[in-house]
Amino acid sequence: MSALIEKVAEALKASIAVELNELISFISPSIGKLSFVAEGSGYYAIKIAPVIFKALTGESVGCYSSRGYARYIAPYTEEDAAVFISGGGEIVNPRILEAMETCNILGIKTAAIIMGRDDSGEIIDSVDLAIEIDAPKDNLSITHYLAAMAFLTKMAGEIGERRGSGRAIELKKELEHFIGEVENMNHKNEVVETLVLRASEKPRSFIYAGPILWGVAMKLSRDLNAYFKAGSIPIDLSQHPHFTKCISDEDIAIVLKTEIEIEAAREVINSLKLRGIEVHEVEVGGDPFLAPLIAGTAIFTTLRELISERKITIPPEIW
């Protein structure tokens, strides 16, 4: 088992070991007027929240970057509570602190889920409730990103279970099973390795995904651009055929899909292949709501190995 996989397994186990009673009691009266707020990799992690909370709890929740929330949501809507997801550490992203201050001024309740420790103390001092998850960190923020998704999945499942959702109960069991098996995963996925290397060789790469895998597509696109100079752009599957027409035969397309998006993905893939455009498919099996965690683990551990092999410098990410 690689050191990275060991860290990922440790982070995921820590994320679902957290006792949720206090947090759920804190947000339950506000869940219909609740938003999740984050920066960087944390923002890509919370992209699963609107879909999974609606499916398991029946409630709609918001999902915003900290600056977007502070400027456009908190002052003009009837928001009641905000849950911030942060990577912790000695330095806190100032945008997170600014958004927390906005909430305090407007009387919006705040909670913070910290992946690691708030060594600065600034986050804990700025919110009504703080939970620190003892998750090890890597310099690409993979462990914290995956831990945040696992935490949100368990949180939605726990609320859904308390509301009598059999679907939520089953998902929680599958989440625990997946995390228990992570240590047995290969640290490098050959399919992912191929598509990453091909994307880095092309002038542009387009990553298609639906709502469930949208955060994974966004983070993959950002990391390809940052570390492999890939010219990558994430595309919502619903943008086909409008955007697909703009892809040329010099480009490459990557299609991320679960069983829910099979038909939509097939339309995109067939259209591109008919025009002779190189397409790579990544189909994520199992429960669609675990797909971001399953795909994220395979994709970003492989990406990290490729970055190490190429000796690419990774600047620290503060979120």
Could you characterize what this model shows?
Helix 5 runs parallel beside helix 6 (94-106) and helix 8 (142-162) runs antiparallel to helix 9. The radius of gyration is 19 Å and the shape is globular. Helix 6 (94-106) links the parallel strand 3 and strand 4 (109-115). It folds into 2 domains: 3-184, 3-Layer(aba) Sandwich (Rossmann fold), CATH 3.40.50; 190-309, Rossmann fold, CATH 3.40.50. It starts with a helix and ends in a 10-residue tail after the last helix. The longest helix is centred in the middle third of the chain and has 21 residues, at 142-162. The chain has helices at 3-16, 21-27, 40-46, 49-57, 66-73, 94-106, 122-126, 142-162, 166-181, 190-201, 214-228, 262-274, 291-309; strands at residues 34-38, 62-65, 81-86, 109-115, 129-133, 205-209, 232-236, 252-257, 278-283. It is α/β, with parallel strands linked by helices and 319 residues long. Strands 2-1-3-4-5 form a 5-stranded parallel β-sheet, sandwiched between helices.
Helix-strand blueprint:
Layout: H1 3-16, H2 21-27, E1 34-38, H3 40-46, H4 49-57, E2 62-65, H5 66-73, E3 81-86, H6 94-106, E4 109-115, H7 122-126, E5 129-133, H8 142-162, H9 166-181, H10 190-201, E6 205-209, H11 214-228, E7 232-236, E8 252-257, H12 262-274, E9 278-283, H13 291-309
Parallel strand pairs: 1-2, 1-3, 3-4, 4-5, 6-7, 6-8, 8-9
Helix pairs in contact: 1-8, 3-8, 3-11, 4-8, 5-6, 8-9, 8-13, 10-13, 11-13
